[in-house]
Amino acid sequence: MSAVAAPATVLLPSPRSSVNDDAISVLPGVFVPEAAQWLPMSSGRIASDGYSWMQAVHWVAGSGLYKPRRHRSHGPRSFGPTTVRVAQELAQLVPCRPGIEYLVRRTGLSERSVEYHLAMLRETGLLAYIVKGTRVRGEGALASEFARMIPVEFDAALGIRTVRRDEDAPAYTRAASGIAESGRELMAKLAKKASRKVRKPRSKTSSKAPARGARKGAEQGVVTAVSDEARCTPMQVGTSTVSSAGGTSFPPESKLASGDAKSPTPKKSKAKAGGRRKLNVVGRRFQLARELTQELDWLRGCSVARIAWVARGVADAGWTVTDVKGWLHLRGEAARVRRGSGLLAVLLAGAETVLDTPAKRADAVEQWRGAQEAARRHRIQQVRARTERYEGDWDAPTSRAVQRQVDEAFAASFRPKPWAAAPDTEALPEVSGVGGLEDDVVAEARAEARQRLMVGDTSLITVAVDAMGRETAEQLYGADLVRRALQLASGARSSLMTYGRR
């Protein structure tokens, strides 16, 4: 039972006749709209295998019935060998669920080109969506699954009879049951094409190079080619000195090139001595911008392209990052920066016209370096002054009134408190002076304090000062020993003084 479903494709008059005029003289155009590119809406039938499907692909490619829509401004202009290459990859997939990245890797085309050719296969009715791929954020992309279809135009052109095995089955499940005699020859040609694999065409430059060399050789009259493997001195056989090539004589062996001589026109190397190419105008702008973002703290994080646009005037004038720093020193910098690129644009306004010579720029750089050196020395002095102020000896006040207040405060703080006598013991007499001591006792006490002071021990005098007061201690040990002991005691608490023996 033969049944052909009503075609859902749009039939358009063909602009040219078929390439196989012996089978069908005039065929309608082939185009399937986007709404009919799904399997339930397709008017074609599912191909039984990839081989029979490739026969339909080659028929569409050679018939010229399909042309891309006129509204498409990009992409292929016809159904050509590249589309056939993509179809070959699809014919080998079971099920036909190709990923874009897979086809890009197999065919060497770009992602956009693969999408164009898949759309052309759908518009010709050779592919129909079973499941359309989706892209969900945070999940893996799902590839589209296609059904390889044979258009009804192919069956009509070759006179293929189809039959539906099951009455309840959809129309796209019908299978071929026979072919007309007029279409057998064309089917045989399509079978040969389907059995051959279409490969990527060679580049035009490589194909033109041998032809160009052959034409050049023909123009120069070269009739004999010498291979690279058989480069030897020509030898003659026999006693005749006349060549059979019409008077052609070979040069003597001493005249032959040894291969060691240099070419009279040596090629100039395009590479620079340092291995780097010379920067153009845009390259110098970006180089200066990158150095500015690295050297200036208030430009860190700014876009290099924006800074290159702002500093294009000074970069074109040949300025370096040091020259820019010198100009910014003369111009003055802001303490608070809100937008670095905007501030730089204001500061560099008219810079290349003011410092228009290398000498002026060098003078500005010298002033900037002098200011940097002065600032460095000032910071060193500040650090030294802070260290001496916090770690040095205490400086006594110069005012007499302040000195009197300090002495009273020290006396009140360090005055010894009277000991409370226990109820069962006799209270010690309070010592108010050294007037009752004999001279030999005072001399012995001073000698002992002097010996201890020589080795750095000031405890004897400091205890006397704490217990009796400084005036009484000076009466006992002398003002000179008390002063030296107090100085050593205060110096022992400083990190700038150490004690040792010689």
Query: Which blocks of ≥5 consecutive residues have pLDDT under 50?
Result: 1-26, 213-246, 425-432
Summarize the main sheet: 3 strands, antiparallel
Please estimate the helix content. Answer: 40-55%
> Which term fits the overall shape?
elongated
Please tally the helical runs, counting DSSP H or I stretches of 4 or more residues. Answer: 19
- SSE order, one letter for each helix or strand: EHHHHEEHEEHHHHHHHHHHHHHH
- CA-to-CA gap between the ends? 128 Å
Mean pLDDT: 77
Describe the strand arrangement of the main beta sheet, using strand numbers: 1-3-2
* Derived structural class: mainly alpha
Number of strands: 5
The percent range for strand residues is under 5%
Rg, Å, rounded: 53 Å
Write the layout of secondary structure elements.
Elements lengths: L44 E2 L3 H14 L17 H11 L8 H8 L3 H13 L3 E5 L13 E6 L1 H7 L1 E4 L11 E5 L4 H12 L8 H17 L60 H15 L8 H7 L1 H5 L4 H11 L8 H8 L3 H4 L3 H34 L8 H15 L24 H16 L4 H10 L1 H8 L1 H13 L11
Antiparallel strand pairs: 1-3, 2-3, 4-5
Helix pairs in contact: 1-2, 1-6, 2-4, 8-9, 11-14, 17-18, 17-19, 18-19
How would you characterize the overall build of this protein?
Helix content is 45%, strand content 4%. The chain is mostly helical and 502 residues long. A 3-stranded antiparallel β-sheet has the order 1-3-2. Helix 1 packs antiparallel against helix 2, helix 2 crosses helix 4 (111-123) and helix 17 crosses helix 19 (479-491). The protein is elongated and about 155 Å long. The model is unreliable at 1-26, 213-246 and 425-432 (pLDDT under 50).
